[in-house]
Amino acid sequence: MHIRKELPDFTKGPIIKSLLTLSIPIVFANLLQTAYQLTDTFWVGRLGAEAVAAVSLSFPVMFLLISLGGGLAIAGTIMVAQYKGKGDLTQVDHVSAQTLIMMVSVSVVFSIIGYFLSAPLMQLMGADAEVFPKAVSYLQISFMGMIFLFGYFVFQSLMRGVGDVKTPMYIVLCTVLLNLIFDPLFIFGWGPIPSFGVGGAAVATIGTQGIAALIGLFILFSGKYGIRLKKSNLKFDFKLIKKMFFLGFPSSIEQSTRALGLTIMTFLVASFGTLVIASYGIGTKILSFIIIPAMGISMSTSTLVGQNIGADKVDRAEKITNKALFLAFLILTLAGIFLFIFAEPAIAAFIPNDPDVIKTGALFIRIMSLSFGFIGAQQTINGTFVGSGNTKTSMTLSIVSLWIFRFPLAYILSKHTSLGINGLWISFPVSNVLATITAYIWFKKGDWKKKKIIPEPLEKEVHKETIIEEGF
Known about the structure:
Layout: H1 15-45, H2 49-86, H3 89-124, H4 132-144, H5 146-162, H6 166-188, H7 198-222, H8 238-270, H9 274-310, H10 314-341, H11 343-348, H12 355-369, H13 372-387, H14 391-415, H15 421-445, H16 458-470
């Protein structure tokens, strides 16, 4: 007999405590993921500029596919969270199994297409003769391991849905430590293990992700951590998979348009020369660290809102959002004040011997830091929309933020006013404030409360029909 681990009931109790219980492990796991990427960068950098260029050219392609896969996995998080809140563990197990089937199927398709398109894609991206074979090798090996990457996405997303964020965090910690060993081992070779060069970084990633995915699957099949995968559920439920695909696809589009938006913004920045590119690059790296706590609070809000809507506690879901908004705004504003004061040392940590880049980068950080609280608020509201199943709303708001507010503002202010490069920097806080106001108005309208992605209990439906028949 399988005994399920007793998970906290997030449909009652102190809201701030629940938010922190979920947010802190998610933030820590995201920081570890950043350390994972830094380890790759460090060891590949030992091979020289061509190796770094090969990975850099491959990154947008991999990031796009990771965004698409991560977005689809969110469908599992939403439905599992709502069924967990409802107390329907049978459906939690069924949805989990179907999420796994959907993600494995998608990963196999991506792997095959990606493997054969690796060379044409690198040609399209302008890889020169020396970089081309390295980039193609790195991409093809990465595509071969796509099933492991998506497999771990499934585990992480499902566990977050039931409210267990510590177990995935421990597994990420193990993968980071393993990557410290695997990277130099496969890049440079040792004993019977040959040197794979740049491809070795991809082999190391497949190895660590493969171990993480297998541990995750073992945990899910064990049934001791809130979810139990059963063989009887591992049959295609096409109706449910279709529903989950269309629930998760807007999140995939949202994440991939963000990735595309950063690329387009880089083209605009590049028109101002090397100094501005360097300042922008370092500034956005620092921003990526600042966004980690915002994403942590957003993901925890998503889980809490999902579970409470599943438990038919919509008013509590709204209270959760309001408190999460306050928490995110406060934490990110404090981080912004800190960076405003220490902007120059923060830039100098990345590029210590270039006063011009330090000065320009520090100005970018100071202008941007004034709106960090709004980034936290916007991410939190997005978390509410996702948790309630309104993924199209979340997608629309992200597209509006980037393509209606930020990019046009950056272009107009930098190219058609006397502000020049300062116009680029100013577009960040202005677009953040406008996007947050838009998201908040949408949230207060309350349409997100009406979305139903799981069927109501039968007794409720019977009660409604009785009321209609009685003429009330």
